[in-house]
Each structure stands twice: as structure tokens, then as C-alpha cells.
Amino acid sequence: MNMDLSRRDFGKLLAGAGATAAFLQLGRSAAIAAPVAGYKAMVGIFLFGGNDGWNMVIPTDTTRYAAYAATRVANLVLPQANLTTLAGSTYGLHPALAPLKAVWDEGGLNVVLNAGTLFQPLTKAQYQASPTLRPVNLMSHSDEQAHWQGIRARDINVDGFMGRLSDRAGASSIPALMSFSGSQLALLGKSSTPLVLPSTGVVTQSAVSGNSADPVLFARNGAVSAFADGAGQGAVTQTTATGLSSAYAQVVQANTILSATSGVDQYFVNPTTGAALTSDIARQLIRVARMIEARSTLGHSRQTFFASQGGYDTHANQIATQNNLFTDLANAMLGFNKAMKALGLNENVICFTLSDFGRVYKGNAQGGSDHAWGNNHLVMGGALKPKQVIGTYPSQVMGGVDDIANDGRFIPTISQEEYIGSIARWHGVADADLPYVFPNWATFSTGGRGPLALFQS
After folding, report:
1. Most exposed residue of 152, 198, 204, 205, measured as fewest CB within 10 angstroms of its CB?
2. What distance in Å separates the CA atoms of residue 405 and residue 75, rounded to the nearest whole number?
3. Which residues form a coiled coil (predicted)?
């Protein structure tokens, strides 16, 4: 379930056949910032629907695994012997995430525990006493997707953290902010524009002269192409036409990269069978890898990508559903990790998961789990401090100090600012710009809080 954008926001994201919104950004100046030496990329993978992180990351020590097995409904419990053990920790991953064990073992995978949307650090007593301290409309798909992408827990989100991050980056002829998951709030900036590309095929331009035998369509396309020329038609038309022509040029450049043969594709194979990966998340990450491979051609020293996988709203039949989704996700992430290593860029690229919210710890009678709050996440990349599990696993007592209900709706103990902010800072966002990218930065960067210590330096 993807969040809906308003017509106005949709227009900001799409141009032509969905490549860019450059021609709609009239009167906006490019962001001005000195480029940072070296190359870095961040890849956000949004797990739409609300991933059950409590079956993605499970404690393996005797006491807490016993509490997990006793507290969750029986048809949600994963046998301890089947878990993917994370060596050196007291946690294991869902069995379908087994391909990521190799990444953990080499020091390229971290786990973040109980992260979520927060307006301020919150105790259960504060939650109960002061509704104004809570994020608005908690456990609503659309609202929590907006909270995660816009990073405002109590205000209307009109732009997103990736777009604002891009505002502070240097401009280039083709945007360094790209999505292979359609139009998303995270991509909206105040001055920058994203490139929205398909996960299969290439971008088609419907408004090109001479591309149709239909005389009406031919005439329309010719008119649009003439408009894109803009010569001698006044300042406003000229400005719009320049943006439209730029959008078409970006399409041509992007299509060249998407349609060419690339060496990165060979790494996206099933680790057991060797068969090429065909899932949508694999196709997205293949294209992300291609754009990273082409970074010099594109003139990018920094790149930001949005990818996603849907289907995580598991109110029933969760075991089978998560097994299928995690199999595709793990294989795609492993392939991406191998591709980055082959390019010599494993230490330059970070992948991280996001999701609407976590799900109730206890579960329900239908073999699923309902909407909740805090959640667990994965971070992958060669620049990480090796083999970290960051954060505090919540109390497994239903109705206890961490549970706002009586079924395991846990209050997050790590905010989005602390989680994503650490990645943004690594990516090159200056400390002075962090309050712009994360509007509530001051709340989570003082009083002993701050970005998570994910990275080696």
C-alpha cells in the first residue's frame, strides 16, 4: 500500500512519461553547495504495508527466545533452530533472510532495534497523559508512511527527507536523486527535482514529432515538440520550454544507461540455483546498481535512491507471506552487495530499510499481526562498524512499560532522526544543514541523544 500524493505533488514529480518534474519547477533556483570530495550513495528500501520486524529479528538467548515463543501466537512463532544466527550477537534473522548471513559475517550488516516515528522521547506515562506528544494518526498506513518519508510526526508533510537532502547537494544535468518505485513523498524537495524511472523497460516520450501514424497524435506531438523549442515565444514560455527540453534530454541519458548491457547484472542471481533474479525489488536494485556504475558519466559525487517492496500488511497468513517477501529481499540485497564490491564501492554505498510501522508482538488468531509502532530495521554497507545490533529490544511483557496496549504495540526508543540522520550525515549532509533535512533535529540531537554510531568513522 503506497501513500497517495496530491495532484499538485504528483505534478512536481512527473514530467513527460514520468521521468522528471524539471519543467514544473518554474522560478526555482538550483541548490548551491560545494561538492564533497569522494563518492557516496544511500539507498532507502521502503517495505510498504508495515513489516513485522519482530519476526525479522528475533532474540536467541534462552530467556528472551522463550518469552518470544510464549508471547506470540503459536502460528507466528519461528523455531529457534531455523533462525539465521548472527554470530557474535544474541539475535537471529528470519530463515528466509539467510543469504544476508554472509554480509553480516563480513561486517557489512547492522541491525537497528525498535525505531519509529517520534515527536519527542516518550515514556508510556507520557504517552497516556499527553496525546499532543504523540505522532498524529498513529498506525495509519498513509500517515505513518508520510511520517517516515517526510520526518514530521505532528505536522503536515509536504516534502520529504530525500528531497530536502537533495536541496543541499550540488546540481547536475541529470538529478542525483532517483526513484525506481514511482512517485513518493520522500523525493519532494523545495528546490531540487527527482528522476522517477521504471523498474522495467525504458521511459517513453509520447510528445516527440513524427512518432505516430495517427494524424491527430502526430499533430499533437509536433505541437508539444514545437513548444519545447520555445524560441521567440516569450519569457514564460521560454522558461517552461527550457525545462521541458531538459526533461527530454534526461530521458535520453537515462534510457541509454537502462538499456545498455551492464556487468552488474550478473551478480543478481539466486545464491542456490544461480538463476537470474526476476522479482521487482531485484529489478529495482539492478537499476540502482547501473546508475551507480554510471556515476562518473552522470557527473554525480553523491547519489540518493528510493526503492521499495510491497505486500507487508500481513493481517493473516504472515509466515508464508514474509517467507516469500524476505526471500526476494535478501537475494536482491545480496546481489546488490556483490555488485558494489565488484565496482569497488562497497564502502561508498549504504542500503537501509524503512516501513510504515511495526506490528503487534502478540499477533492475531488469523496467523497475522495488526498495526503497531516501533520496528526493527536492517542497514547494509562496507562503511559500517562490523556486526552491530544497535538499540534496546523492548520488554516482552504485554501491557508492560514499553507497550501502549496489551498486545505488544511498542513505543520506539530510536527516532527516525537518529536512525536516518546518521546515514544522512555519513552521506555528506553538513551539521548545519541537518535541521533543514530533519525539521525536528534539535529534539533528537541534544540531551545525550544523536545520530546512531553506525559507521566506522
Report:
1. 204
2. 21
3. none
